[in-house]
Amino acid sequence: MPSASKSWLLLSGFVLFYIIYLLFGALVFSSIERPVEDELRRDTERLKEAFLNQSCVSAATLELFLSRVLAANKHGVSVLRNSSGRSNWDLASSMFFANTLVTTVGYGHPTPLSDAGKAFSIVYALIGVPFTMLVLTACVQRVMQPLVLAPVGLLQRSGLKPRPATVVHFLLLLVAVVLCCILAPAAVFSALEASWTFLDSVYFCFISLCTIGLGDFVPAARPGQPYRALYQVAVMVYLFIGLMMMYLLLRTFHKMADVHGLTTFFQLPRCEASLLGDDTEPIVGNDPTPPRPKDKAAAKPLDPGSQPSYNSINKG
Amino acid sequence: MLYYSKDLSQRNQCGTPQIMIISMLPVAAPDLLDPKAAVHNSKPRLSFSTKPVVLNTPEDECDTRTTVMRWKTVSAIFFLVVLYLIIGATVFQALEQPHESYQKSVILKEKLEFLALHSCINSTELEDLVKAGLSFIAPLMLYSSSGLLNLYCVKLPTRATIFTLKLLSFYLQQVVSAVRAGVNPSGNLSNQTSLWDLSSSFFFAGTVITTIGFGNISPHTEGGRIFCILYALLGIPLFGFLLAGVGDQLGTIFGKGIAKVEKMIVKWKVSQTKIRVISTLLFILFGCLIFVALPAVIFKHIEGWSTLESIYFVVITLTTIGFGDFVAGEKGHLTEGGSENLEYLDYYKPVVWFWILVGLAYFAAVLSMIGDWFRVISKKTKEEVGEFRAHAAEWTANVSAEFKETRRRLSVDIYDRFQRAASIKRKLSSELGINATMNQEMTPGKRTLSANLCEDKDTYPSLTLSLSPVPGALTRNGSLYLNGLSPDYADRQEIAIIENLK
User: Fold this and answer.
1) Is the CA virtual torsion A23, A24, A25, A27 positive or negative?
2) Is A106 in contact with B218 (Cβ distance < 8 A)?
């Protein structure tokens, strides 16, 4: 179908543009932050040398030394590593940083240190976050068909009624996502990172995919990490795919809720609630507003509020 | 990020058109990929509220009823979320604080041992050393402690001092692991604020369910981490509902204000688009003022950050990125150079959290607006390209039609003259007995005939002059012989072919 191939073209155009955006951010961050970092590292190295050449450590000297080290550390430069060690702002790390910025994960390691870097990251985030959202939803839209609509159709054809079919499918999808996007990568991470246990890796995967990004675990942070750039790019790809899967799960869940009429049921009290006089609708886990309109907007030619079965929703 | 993906066009039962609210569910970008969706999103949604300028009374009643209803639901959800946070805070505290206390006691012991053997630095200086050192150790938690030891291999002559240094190194190792556990080893045990007291745990639970995730505090025990996962699984959707409700309220409030302003402006006969643009600008302006500028000033004043850092903190927090290099309300803990606990007002942290809640709703609206603009831009570009193409096609078609028309007229003209010339010739030849060289003159015409007919076979209905060999007889069939030169009767075959091309 020409329109389908056109959509694929558009989608790949999107993704390509997204990658270009990340690269652009990486270049800018790298060029802004790296000189600052290098200079600080040189300064603190010199300072450390001077400090070590003293015969006795007096409190005052130590205090001075430490305050200088602190200032350097505020810019992410550690005096602990070898000066020939890796930078936090080479191209791959900057791209990784840009990626954590636009996906709003935000580990916090590294962080932009110079004022210019901070100002640029504000602007970059304000543009990049909605753009990333767009790309993600476009991708999810594209995979809805093979991953959701087709299997449900298959299930229905093999004899299940529509509603149980959607539930079965959702559960299967959930299990698949948990296996592929959390447990399997966690195994890989715990193998690659020396100090992470399996639980730590699961914790890291979950915290990253929910875009919480606490930052207590950050991959590729070990000093002697081999193939660091490749590792970081791989983690970026993993993050993107994982986020996509989370969105897909969310959408499937809400479509399922639509099919089961949960959302329509709970969206009743709009004007009519005052007629019913009922103020105590069940609150836990349900809100009238979000799920219904989402699918109204997403289901293109259908009327708002009418969702007979999501197999009938236009397969974009 | 999970909150930001859509703007909802919510059609409530009263039928008031689209009030945009924020929700946590991804609305696809089908507009870009599916041309059919262009129908659904025909107008760029520039304004936060797209209520019509004229408000009908029944809709007003409906709206007030809706607003009241929603307000109650929203506050109910709000209290539920607060309850959830308190529960989370207590559980986190229960899980993490024992570990923290254990680390603290270990550190204290080591410190006392060190002080007993130590010669060069007295206790206050050691305090300063530790406090200063911690601020840079804390963010470097990820690095190995052996590197830390290298830092302190100061060359000192005596064996005692070497021994002291080794103990210092060991002590610093303990410091590092204490810091990894979230413990601040400086100061006495008694007057120290725990990282996991109730208000800090509450704040931490808040950062988890809003997916901001600063990371300045994070769970270190296994139980804490597992509980964190489960907590987030339930808390994030719950907070999403709250956010949707708050966004709803914001939208309603703003929409009412805008409606009033629009009522005034419409008297000045400004176009609808201009009103939309103005309302969007007002929305952005007021929102920035209330949710960005004002808090930035407050943070700058209370936390002592620079202007850029305050704005940076506001933006990074409200987009839920949450690096954690700047955190409001955490100055007393492990920040660089922070040696004293700032005396915060009691209600500072809850106010910060409330600001985060409302600011998140505002930012979600702004970001969805920006996303909308992207969509509109790309759609418009598509449309414009399509329009351009359509224009170009139309233009070419017009030009070629005109061209053909001219040629047709010309060819008819030429044909007429030719016919006259031919009749004159026939008269002459019949008088003189000369056979006309008409055949040869036909051939170039025949060739161009078929070529021209192929060209316009599917665009315009054209006139046919099918020319019969009988002089003077013109019949119209439906195909156009552009050159107008008629074939002989010997070429009637070609006429048939040419007509079949239509």
Assistant:
1) positive
2) no
